[in-house]
Amino acid sequence: MKHAPLADALDLAGRGVPVLPLREGKGPMGNCRSCQKNACGGRPNMKTPGPCECPAPCHAWAAATTDPYILTSAVWAPAWRQAAAVAYHPGGTALTVVDLDNAEAIAWARQNLPTTRTVPSTRGEHWIYLGTMTSRNGVRPGIDIKSAMSYARWLGPGTGRMTPLPDVVRALAVREPATARPVSAPVAGVPATAGGGQCPHRSPAYLERGIAMGEQRITEAASAVHATVYRTFIAVLSAHGRCGCLTEAHIGRLFTAAQAKGESLRHCETAWTNARARLGM
């Protein structure tokens, strides 16, 4: 007899839905030894579902597949024996899931979003729309969006007719630019250098290049985004943090780049504070 999660996964895969196993606690299976800490390099840009060159169910949502031979392979067998549930990649089947985690979130959705197919979840509901968009957690209290580069737990087919993805849902994932103080305002808590606050930079272009390089480093991170953000903050503060010319506007640019990669504002603030502490600022 087939293990229940595998049976569900094969049924979904047969209908063209990319699936993967979830362990207890709704998390994906950990990477195999070859892929731990992304040693394998991961999938290029992690933009399409499917395993990396190793056939194990690695890399979370990117492991999702519709291939029954992969799903029933000996490599995947241990994962299915441990699996508590099945997940799917909504973006891989041109869907978007609005995950409503509590009664307040459901009430807000009923007042503000078009009706669509609804699936009951453990604490709330999944509202499923036809169309793909950027995924983002915490768009409102108790509301996450799961579509491209994300996974959602399979909870059944649900009820109701699916509605095309509306602009009001797309707008939820649009990040507002970070609020910045005037460029002339120095960063609070970062002291100027001695010697009358003289800037040691060769020219204003030097600082601009430093910020632009920091933005690029964060934007191009294909993995380990948390660590990349922290290391970038360290580098920027090391080069530009003690002369008094680094402003909230510059910091806002770095925070905006990090948030575009999925980092929360709280994480950005914590990483910046930790970077300053490490440098003794």
Give your account of this protein's structure:
There is one protein chain. Helices cover 34% and strands 13% of the residues. With 281 residues, it is an alpha+beta fold. It contains nine helices and nine strands. The protein is globular, with a radius of gyration of 22 Å.
Relevant terms:
281 residues, alpha+beta, six-stranded mixed sheet
Q: How many β-strands, per DSSP?
A: 9
Tally of contiguous helical segments: 9
- What portion of residues belong to β-strands? 5-15%
**Overall radius of gyration:** 22 Å
Categorize the overall geometry.
Answer: globular
What would a concise description of this structure say?
The chain is α+β, with helices and mostly antiparallel strands.
What's the layout of helices and strands?
Layout: H1 4-14, E1 19-22, H2 68-71, H3 77-82, E2 85-88, E3 95-100, H4 103-112, E4 117-120, E5 125-130, E6 136-140, E7 143-146, E8 152-153, E9 163-164, H5 167-172, H6 204-219, H7 225-240, H8 248-260, H9 265-278
Parallel strand pairs: 5-9
Antiparallel strand pairs: 1-2, 2-8, 3-5, 3-7, 4-5, 6-7
